[in-house]
Amino acid sequence: MKVLIVKLSSLGDVVHSMPAVQDILKAFPKAQIDWVVERSFAPVVARCVGVRRLIVCDLRRWVRSPLSGTTRKEWRAFKTELQSQTYDAVIDLQGLSKSALVSRLARTSSTGKRYGLANQTEGSSFEAPARWVADIAFTLEPHVHAVDRARLLCALALGYEVAGPVRFGLVPKPGMGIRSPASNEFAPRKPIVTLVHGTSRLDKQWPLDSWIEVGQRLNHQGFKVALVHGNEQEKKTSQTIAKALEDAVVWPTMALDVLVDTLAQSAGVIGVDSGISHIAVALGLAHVQIYNFDTAWRTGPHASPLHASVFATPTPDVDAIWQAWEKLATPALCR
Predict the structure, then answer these.
(1) Contacts by 36-42 with C-beta closer than 8 Å and gap 24+?
(2) CATH of region 192-334
(3) What is the pLDDT of residues 26-82, one digit of tens each?
(4) Is residue 182 predicted with pLDDT exceeding 60?
(5) Which of 15, 51, 80, 100 has its CA 20 to 30 A from that of 327?
(6) Within a 13 Å sphere around the CA of 335, how many CA atoms are in the beta-carbon half?
(7) Quick check: 293 and 202 in contact, CB under 8 A?
(8) Quick check: 183 pLDDT over 50?
(9) Residue 148, phi then psi, degrees to nearest 5
(10) Beta pairing class for 224-227 and 192-196
(11) Other C-beta atoms within 10 Å of 222: how many?
(12) How far is residue 16's CA from residue 96's CA, in Å, rounded to a whole number?
């Protein structure tokens, strides 16, 4: 059986769709699974167990200059690659006009079908063309977690039951990534906890003083702190936090695949609701996710000994985050 997953963006949503791939493989061990994704997020999908072939697109860039020669050339190449094979199932996990377009362009086998969503679920985006393009569209319970949304849709499309714990199948490449420098290569390295403070939405941020205090507590607990950033402003914030700590490193700007492999070397992660935080969950790292809105039920990690989410308004305080951190399994081993 050949299955095409259409999930183009964004980073967190792409990560949330990975467990559906693991479910398909469990139900159909010989399934061949391809995935259409925006180029920016392809390095993460490339590390998802069970994805045979990536079909990369640049729809976000193409729509900005749809009539340029470069766009037309790249679009033709994308269309040729997309249609180079037929699929027994094309599953649109995004539910938007752009993903519906991709699903419509994909070729199905003589018995193949296109599957999609028939309704919007709480907190997610949905556009009517996604329902119209699908040969079969399924109505889901509106109050559903993002991970479960993808798992349920694939199960309904392919006729199996969702069972067992969430497995992302995100596997870093051994020996890849970067390591923080050490003054003595023979000295034992401290375990690292990565702080993820960057987010595209200002109302998801956590106060600077809170980051500094939790970093100081981590240092006192015996951890080195690493800080990541995605732009110059986030880099400045990372540097400000690092200067206030006894033992911290600001990682350089790195490609997404290198970031995944580097993050995997951490003992744990504390971060706001962002794509990088969701990667931490998918990697199976100890992780506390910080929420200023009561949306953790939809995008936060499923409760487990390794993962926790903390919500409070206007923001959770440091003590609440620290209590959640100390309850996690991995930090307890490092004390």
Answers:
(1) 36/4, 36/5, 36/6, 36/7, 36/8, 36/82, 36/102, 36/106, 37/7, 37/8, 37/9, 38/8, 38/9, 40/9, 40/11, 40/256, 41/9, 41/10, 41/11, 41/14, 41/256
(2) 3.40.50.2000
(3) 999 999 999 999 999 999 999 999 999 999 999 999 999 998 999 999 999 999 999
(4) no
(5) 15
(6) 9
(7) no
(8) no
(9) -65, -30
(10) parallel
(11) 12
(12) 16
Q: Is 40 exposed, middle or buried (0-12, 13-18, 19+ CB in 10 A)?
A: middle
Bridge-based pairing state of the strands 268-272 and 51-57 = unpaired
Q: Are 133 and 114 in contact (CB under 8 A)?
A: yes
- Residue 210: is its pLDDT beyond 90? yes
Position 157: which residue type?
A: A
Q: Is-contact 281 301, C-beta < 8 A?
A: yes
CATH 3.40.50.2000 is the classification of domain 2-158: yes
User: Which residue is it, tokens 């991995």?
Assistant: 330
- CA 34 to the chain's CA centroid: 18
Phi-psi region of 73 (alpha: psi -120 to 50; beta: other; left: phi over 0): alpha
The strands making up 192-196's β-sheet, listed across from edge to edge, are 248-250, 224-227, 192-196, 268-272, 286-291, 307-311
Dist. CA 106–CA 135, nearest whole Å:
13
218-266 pLDDT per residue, tens:
999 999 999 999 999 999 999 999 999 999 999 999 999 999 999 999 9
In the chain, where the domains are located:
2-158, 192-334
